[in-house]
Amino acid sequence: MWYNVITAESSEKMQGWIEEFQDSIEYIEQNLSGTLDIEDIAAEAALSPFYYQRIFGALCGMTVGEYIRARRMTLAAQELACSERKVIDIALKYGYDSPDSFSKAFRSFHGITPAQAREAGANLRSFAPLHIRISLEGGTMMDYKIVEKAPFTAVGIKKRFSAETSYREVPGFWDEWASDRKGLKGTFGICTDMDGKYLDYWIADLYLPWEDIPEGCSVCQIPGGLWAVFRCEGALPESMQRVNRQIWSEWLPALQGYTLAGGHLLELYMPQEGSPAGAVSYICIPLNKE
Questions:
Q1: What is the pLDDT, as a whole number, of residue 141?
Q2: Do 60 and 89 sit in the same domain of this protein?
Q3: Residues 168 and 281 occupy one common structural domain
Q4: For the chain, is the Cβ count within 10 Å smaller at the N or the C terminus?
Q5: Residue 180 DSSP label
Q6: How far apart are CA 41 and CA 196, in angstroms?
Q7: Same structural domain for residues 123 and 198?
Q8: Which of 180, 190, 200 is nearest to 153 (CA)?
């Protein structure tokens, strides 16, 4: 059965979702000079760490870690310019255990050293706190279908990634696989063991018990259940990245009757026929029915 979601029709629910997500941004702001853990941040938005990082990247265009570093470097520069506190004290305040590590991060962000930041007329960068807003003007629509799938077994190769940076690094894994496919067609991209800090990403095919497991490959079990299935059309990876952003910024805030389920995410790649512009793929997200 196909479902349509028009975000304007779910504005009340979306507003509550935005407020919860903004609470997580404010939590970050309140703890920039202390310890920040992704589990605690995600809890402010009532999301798992994995999904929180996916949504944050789609909404904000950067990772959670990049945002925290940008805000800490902004505040550190202000303190350097306006106070006589020692560099090591400011470094420790914002989570750096040595002047060298702090200086390296500071130079990377501002283009100058902490000492130069104290000179009159020094050019410093500033990154303002984020405020999440989603415009409902005109409304948008997404088509997806919710299906119940039986459990299945996949066979493939896997690599462990940081959950924060996997979005950028996984395409490189596909490039590595292209040079040695190990007898795989690359039917699936599968995220498993998503603990919020790390995940295993598989390039895999459907496992057929009567066939040998290729050398260097292993199997993983994908549980059955409800899945939201989104069709992506166009050249990869752009088409999938575009739909992925829409899922987290448009579909999820308006989702009713279901909640996200943890454990796995699936990408399904159909055999390509013709030009890359005609490629078809799917993003599949596990759900629980409320």
A1: 59
A2: yes
A3: yes
A4: N
A5: -
A6: 11
A7: no
A8: 190
Six-digit token pair at 59?
A: 């909404």
Tally of structural domains, the chain: 2
Ramachandran quadrant class, 138 (left: phi over 0; alpha: psi -120 to 50; beta: rest): left
**pLDDT range class, residue 43, cuts 50, 70, 90:** very high
Identify the CA nearest to 261 among candidates 146, 170, 110, 135: 146
Going by the DSSP 8-state scheme, the letter that residue 117 receives in this structure is: G
Evaluate if residue 285 carries a pLDDT over 60: yes
CA dihedral sign of residues 147, 148, 153, 159: positive
Under the banding of pLDDT at 50, 70 and 90, the label for residue 264 is confident
| E strand map for the chain | 2-6, 141-149, 152-162, 188-192, 198-206, 218-222, 225-233, 258-260, 265-269, 280-289
**Per-residue pLDDT tens over the stretch 164-219:** 888 889 989 999 999 989 889 999 999 988 777 889 999 999 999 888 999 999 99
For residue 213, what are its two tokens?
């497991």
